[in-house]
Amino acid sequence: MSDEESENEFTVRMFMSTDPLTVREDANIVEVSRSMMDRGVGACFVERDGKAIGIITERDIVRRVVAKGLDIFKTRASEIMSRPIIAVEPTATVEEALQIMAEKKIRRLAVIDKNLLVGIVTISDLARALLKRIEIVNGFVRAATRELPMYA
């Protein structure tokens, strides 16, 4: 944990997934979908020259390709990706990440460290973080409210 990360703060680094899926900007939607299915993920980043330039979710594929009747073999990742990428640093707190998600009405954030994509954090990851925090607080409450043994 870095100096910026306090022991009392839950940071994005603690709950993010590392090694996020990336696809080439010229990949067709079949390639994108297969990559997502193979990795068991609901989103991937689109990259150009090794740099993430957009994000595609399963929902994007349904709404921007399938519902519009576009050709899944001809439509490219760059045509349906969302951009710019909304991101946080790994040292951001869970609360900061949740605030950004709420403001932007999104469910995923890229995690960028020194201009490099290092992970992804989802609303589910952050919900897990909040549940962990509740467990810790409940443990303190139980410990503080236990009856002390009586000595004769």
How is this structure best described in words?
- It is a single chain.
- The chain is an alpha/beta fold.
- It is built from six helices and seven strands.
- The protein has a single domain, classed as CBS-domain (Roll), CATH 3.10.580.
- Helix content is 41%, strand content 22%.
- Helix 5 packs across helix 6 (123-145).
- It is elongated.
- It starts with 11 loop residues before the first helix and ends in a 7-residue tail after the last helix.
Summary?
This protein has 152 residues and is α/β, with parallel strands linked by helices. It is 41% helix and 22% strand. It has a single domain, classed as CBS-domain.
Layout of strands and helices, then pairs:
Layout: H1 12-15, E1 17-18, E2 22-24, H2 29-39, E3 43-48, E4 51-57, H3 58-66, H4 77-80, E5 87-88, H5 94-104, E6 108-113, E7 116-122, H6 123-145
Parallel strand pairs: 2-3, 5-6
Antiparallel strand pairs: 1-7, 3-4, 6-7
Helix pairs in contact: 5-6
* Quaternary assembly: single chain
Number of strands: 7
> What is the H-and-E element order?
HEEHEEHHEHEEH
| CATH topology-level fold name | CBS-domain
Q: In the CATH hierarchy, what is the architecture at level 2?
A: Roll
For the record, the count of structural domains works out to 1
Largest pleated sheet: 4 strands, mixed
Question: So, the CATH homologous superfamily?
Answer: CBS-domain
Strand order of the largest sheet: 1-7-6-5
Structural class: alpha/beta
Shape: elongated
The rounded Rg comes to 20 Å
Rounded to the nearest angstrom, the distance between the terminal CA atoms is 47 Å
**Discrete helix count:** 6
- What fraction of the residues are assigned to beta strands by DSSP? 15-25%
**Text of the CATH class:** Alpha Beta
Low-confidence stretches: 1-6
The residue-averaged pLDDT reads 90
Q: Percent range for helical residues? A: 40-55%
